[in-house]
Amino acid sequence: MGSLSPDDSDNVVPPISGELRGLLLRIAREEATRFLADTDPPAIPIDLPGNFGGAFVTLWNQKRLRGCVGSFARTSDIVATVQTVTRSTLRDSRFESCPVTSKELDALTIEISILTTPIQTNDPASLVIGVDGIVIECGRRSGCFLPKVATDREWSAEEFLANCCTMKAGLPNDAWRGDDVKVSLFRAEVFSDA
Description:
globular, Dna Ligase, domain 1, 4-stranded antiparallel beta sheet, alpha+beta, 2 domains
């Protein structure tokens, strides 16, 4: 399979209304507040229809990244996934020496990416910049980039793949071309409380 097409049923994020976006952003912020205050999260009985390919939560302070963690686990409980991923983002290992604190929380922008299920491709270079995200796997090494990373950094498809290999998976920059490397594409619906 080459580039994903918009009518691939496994690659379509269920409709996310403005109301649902607002709800998920509120849940993420409340979860961050509870986590930083070290209190137990309450159960949130919300029934949201649809199967989702997972979610990422990204935290920004101005234009400075403060955490980005996600899950590709397919879920029908997107609320629980957003809660879990929010807690993981606050523990992002890249920021162990300067973790997010409760004092910083009000200055943070929360960005949520609702994902489709990654689909393996035989033609990685055919990915669509700004539309397709990538997952690269080789043995126990793996890495991923959300779709907007290529756009933000003005990378070509080949630069996107090469940088994911080196920066995320710890592989040589041309590893994505190898027969022993699995490259999958996914899409994301992204929204924030900025």
